[in-house]
Write a structure and sequence with these properties.
The complex is a heterodimer of chains A (312) and B (333).
Chain A lengths: L1 H22 L2 E7 L6 H16 L3 E7 L4 H13 L4 E4 L8 H9 L3 E5 L13 E4 L2 H16 L3 E7 L5 H17 L3 E8 L4 H14 L5 E4 L2 H13 L6 E3 L5 H8 L5 E3 L3 H16 L7 E3 L4 E3 L12
Chain B lengths: L2 H39 L6 H26 L7 H19 L1 H25 L4 H20 L4 E2 L10 H4 L1 E2 L2 E2 H19 L1 H11 L1 H6 L4 H27 L1 E2 L7 H11 L11 H20 L6 H22 L8
Antiparallel strand pairs in B: 1-4, 2-3
Helix pairs in contact in B: 1-12, 1-13, 2-7, 2-10, 2-11, 2-12, 3-4, 3-5, 3-10, 4-10, 7-8, 8-10, 11-12, 12-13
Classes of the chains: A alpha/beta (312), B mainly alpha (333).
Chain lengths: 312, 333
């Protein structure tokens, strides 16, 4: 009796899932890095759920690894078991997820990496990367710095957390472009600010003691840029151009007041939409570039009206 | 026949005396040594501006370290202060716009003391191990902070237009308010510890819990109260931090528990409880801050301070142990 029940329920469950698969043309699984740990990821999560809800014929399973590599690998295994058509992964660790990405690819699942890329060893196994071009963002910031200082001056740099690809790429983009675009703008010192506003404020206080003349500050994101601005305001040092990246609401407001020169507008909403669109394009057999960057334009006081204030 | 023995023992005495001196005054010697060393390499190091910056930067860690010193003297540890700082800062900044500054501060202190009371109850009355309780609390409070904020950064919207900026940004008679809070609290707590019956009870409980109980001290209550004090000073730290940054990330206090403990240990407060002083904690925290600032002025990345700090702490602990046993090294036997 028990056995019969079990078998029937299995059959029912099987046919149900079969119907589920039929009703949606595509099934896409998403495993995110760490929702809820910062504003960007929280907004990204909300956006991708909202975008997925609007799509017809696409069934989206949204998961969150909670910053834990082991959990992300387990989620990938689940998605492979469920035989989804594509997996969007925001790697918790670009190196550690390579083997499971490979396993997904071998199971015939298209893997799209979102926001931050996985290690080079994993590149053959992914269909595409969708995210911001951090080197280009660094370049944009360098160009804004040239404009702000009219091609001459001394700047300090507050970089992101050491070891983060985003931090490394932005720094590289900034330094390389600055050397070419305006060789008379010199970076006198670089210190990491760990994406942390209070730490950046402390670093900037030390810079202000150390250097009598600072014409510009480049910070790896606006959160750190605002920390530096706080320090300069407290020390009553004026005439410094602050340029950041990943425009935050506080940066946007300071820009409106004329205290903050410029930033790079990177919207988690665009980031989420781009990832979903890339996955769908890949599944539809469209020709998608391997590195599918979404646009992250420069934002200064002059053009800030074209952008809505960031939600984070 | 007896002369060699005398010689050895007098040599031993000299070593023991030297060690005692180093252990007692080593912190001051190290302080002067660092000031002197850094000033050789950077002419800006000993300028008034820089010294004021350093003391102001030390004031958040320092304020928290005052409360933690009391806990450590009482024979326990408090590792939860890092995420308690995050929680309190997020709370006070978030509520600032919703309830108004004064109400936000009151609510923040209420929750800080509530968490302190929970720590104190578990450790003082239920007699659970303080390391385990506060380590657990460290991640619990971090979780609560993330749930509360939903991962979003909190910011005060009208930053130029609130008296809340007083605690982190203002000056009175040329001295930064954070420094005044730090030094003011240090004086009050030093007086409580050294000049009141309550203070002597804290030392007694930490030094010899058994004897303290036999002499009629209510040990549970004393331990409980030390956690209230450490939660209170952490709340004060959050007040300075929130006002200084006018915004907060969820993890703003991450790692503070160790920096605070480093300052306390550097000051020579024994982790075994029963001895220590606020003045020395203040110096310990200042040393940490000067090391950080000095290395930055010399152009080293800030994480080099971790190496230097670690080395200095090991040295401090080693001197403490060596002076207790009167020998620098022990044999492997």
């Amino acid at each position: 009796m028990n056995k019969i029940l079990k078998v029937t329920s299995l059959v029912i469950a099987g046919s149900l899932s079969h119907i589920g698969a039929l009703s949606a043309d595509m099934r896409i699984g998403i495993t995110q890095n760490n929702v809820g740990v910062d504003s960007y990821q929280t907004t990204y999560d909300a956006s991708i759920k909202a975008a997925a809800a609007k799509l017809d014929g696409v069934d989206v399973i949204v998961l969150d690894a909670g910053g834990d590599v082991a959990r992300q690998i387990a989620q990938m295994q689940d998605l492979i078991q469920q035989k989804v058509d594509a997996i969007i992964i925001w790697p918790t660790n670009g190196q550690a997820v390579v083997p499971i990405v490979r396993k997904a690819q071998q199971a015939g699942i298209k893997v799209i990496v979102t926001n931050s890329n996985i290690a080079d060893a994993g590149q053959p196994f992914i269909a595409a990367f969708s995210g911001p071009d951090n080197i280009r963002q660094g370049k944009y910031s360098a160009e804004m710095m040239c404009d702000a200082l009219n091609g001459k001056g001394e700047v300090v740099q507050i970089s992101g957390q050491p070891g983060y690809t985003t931090a490394i790429e932005r720094q590289k983009g900034f330094e390389d472009r600055l050397a070419v675009a305006c060789p008379d703008v010199k970076i006198v010192e670089t210190q990491p600010g760990d994406w942390n506003r209070e730490k950046s404020q402390r670093v900037m206080e030390n810079f202000l003691t150390k250097y009598d003349n600072i014409d510009g500050v480049y910070a790896g994101d606006d959160n750190m840029g605002i920390g530096a601005l706080n320090a300069a305001k407290a020390a009553k040092r004026t005439g410094i151009a602050f340029i950041g990246a990943t425009n935050f609401a506080v940066g946007y407001e300071a820009m409106a007041k004329g205290e903050y020169y410029g930033s790079v507008y990177q919207s988690p909403v665009d980031d989420a939409n781009a990832a979903l669109k890339t996955a769908i394009d890949v599944l539809n057999g469209k020709d998608v570039p391997k590195k599918n960057y979404f646009d992250t334009p420069k934002i200064t006081k002059a053009n800030m009206n074209e952008f809505t204030k960031p939600v984070f | 026949m007896t002369s060699p023995t005398v010689k050895i023992s007098s040599q031993k005495n000299i070593t023991a005396w030297g060690l005692k001196l180093l252990a007692r005054q080593g912190i001051l010697i190290a302080f002067v040594f660092f000031l002197f060393g850094f000033s050789l390499f950077s002419e800006r190091f000993l300028t008034t501006d820089n010294i004021m910056v350093v003391i102001r930067q030390a004031s958040i860690i320092g304020t928290i370290a005052l409360g933690v010193t009391i806990v450590v003297i009482g024979g326990n540890l408090d590792l939860s202060v890092g995420s308690l700082l995050s929680f309190c800062t997020v709370l006070v900044v978030d509520l600032h716009d919703k309830l108004g500054p004064l109400q936000a501060i009151i609510v923040m202190f209420f929750f800080a003391l509530l968490i302190g009371a929970l720590n104190g109850y578990l450790i003082g009355f239920l007699k659970l191990n303080s390391l385990i309780v506060t380590l657990g609390m460290l991640s619990t409070i971090q979780g609560i902070t993330l749930i509360y904020s939903g991962g979003l950064n909190v910011d005060i919207s009208n930053q130029d237009d609130t008296w809340f900026s007083f605690f982190g940004r203002d000056y009175i008679a040329g001295i930064a308010v954070p420094v005044l809070i730090f030094m003011g609290l240090a004086l009050v707590i030093e007086f409580i510890l050294k000049g009141t019956v309550y203070g002597r009870k804290v030392f007694a409980v930490g030094g010899n819990p058994g004897a303290a109980v036999f002499s009629g001290i209510k040990k549970n209550k004393i331990v409980f109260s030390t956690y209230l004090l450490s939660a209170f000073t952490t709340g004060c730290g959050a007040l300075i931090l929130g006002s200084r940054v006018m915004g907060s990330q969820n993890n703003v206090g991450q790692g503070y528990e160790l920096l605070v403990l480093a300052g306390v240990i550097l000051g020579g407060t024994s982790l075994l409880g029963g001895s220590g002083s606020i003045t020395r904690t203040v110096i310990g925290v200042l040393i940490l801050s000067f090391i950080q600032n000095g290395l930055l002025l010399l152009g080293y990345p800030y994480y080099t301070q971790w190496l230097v700090t670690w080395a200095v702490i090991i040295l401090a602990v080693w001197l403490d142990v060596a002076s207790t046993r009167g020998k620098v090294f022990t044999s492997f036997k």
